Predict the structure.
Amino acid sequence: MKILAFETSCDETSVAVVEDGKKILSNIISTQINIHKEFGGVVPEIASRHHIENILPVFTEALEKSNCQLNDIDYIAVTNTPGLIGSLLVGLMFAKSLSYANNIPLLPVNHINGHIFSSFIDNDVKLPAISLVVSGGHTNLYYIYEENGKIITDLLGETLDDAVGETYDKIARILGLEYPGGPHIDKLSVNGEDVLKIKKPKVDGYNFSFSGIKTFITNYVNNQKMKGNPVSKEDIAKSLQEIIVNVLYDKILTAIKEKDVKTILVAGGVSANRRLREKFSEFKNIKTDQNEQIEVHFPKMEYCTDNAAMIGVAAYYDLKNNSQVEQRKQYDVDAIS
Ligand code: KG4
Ligand code: ZN
């Protein structure tokens, strides 16, 4: 089964062709990062205008690279939520038109579901698993298991305020670093010391809170500046890295103790973070309930940030979970921000 997938929820225009939910025949990503850099973040109106310019060439390239024709395509998948409304609409309208004109059923896909299923690309996931989705807009923790042939994704917890990527980007801005700030902080932290030793926020259950960490660092930087003291970007970067990675690690450790967990899956833009990857490899030292080693999986870099391949894979599992396939041939589906 071949799925042609579209992703335009934020500042990446991406189109992919996915075969049988795991083989990526093509995955073309056109990023607008350089355009939004000068504004210090994504400008929604500019993003949607660029999606309009990019979507046709990206679609043409994706189809060509996959060696497929439109009549080889069984389904068209498209991100319809959550995201920037103007950006979502460009992908959705393009996909709907293509679907209608070529009589190919349309599958709306949730963007976060896409990130979860990016972990299933080139990877036979052993379930049950814990999935952590860490991106610019989301910090969600899921318990994923199989029941009656269906893959269930139960939301265990989420951030009550800022997302992890958002925290990185906001602190980067305070330090005068370019957008997106995550990769810069990641790099700087290598030469820093955890001088701030920020305390873990007290948040019950599996939820997260990062806004206090942001306030703590903002106040520290302002105080140092007022006193005329130098501020080490490297030390702040290292301190931020440590507190964030430790908070995420601890929540997952709790889940491992409370549940049957065979695999840890990490997805979303922040999963590119090197300290996160290093620290999470420690989970491999913990044994499962069956006395096997816990597996830890990070997607390849091209599947960490927004991409259409993960949307195609998520659509495949949506289909598997729902036998009422024909009911999905619908054009009344809306973009929801
Ligand atoms: O998943 P993504 O590409 O887009 C959203 O759906 O938000 O994630 C982008 C986020 C940005 O906040 C960016 O700063 C962060 O991922 N990011 C990182 C790293 N690379 C990207 N954060 C920390 N360390 C990194 N190496
Ligand atoms: Zn994303």
User: Anything to note?
Assistant: Residues 10, 135-137, 165, 168-169, 180-183, 186, 268-270, 272-273, 305-306 surround KG4 (ligand 1) (CB under 6 Å). The chain has a mean pLDDT of 94. Strands lie at 2-7, 12-19, 23-31, 75-81, 106-110, 129-134, 139-147, 150-158, 263-267, 295-297. The chain has two domains: 2-116+302-328, 126-299.
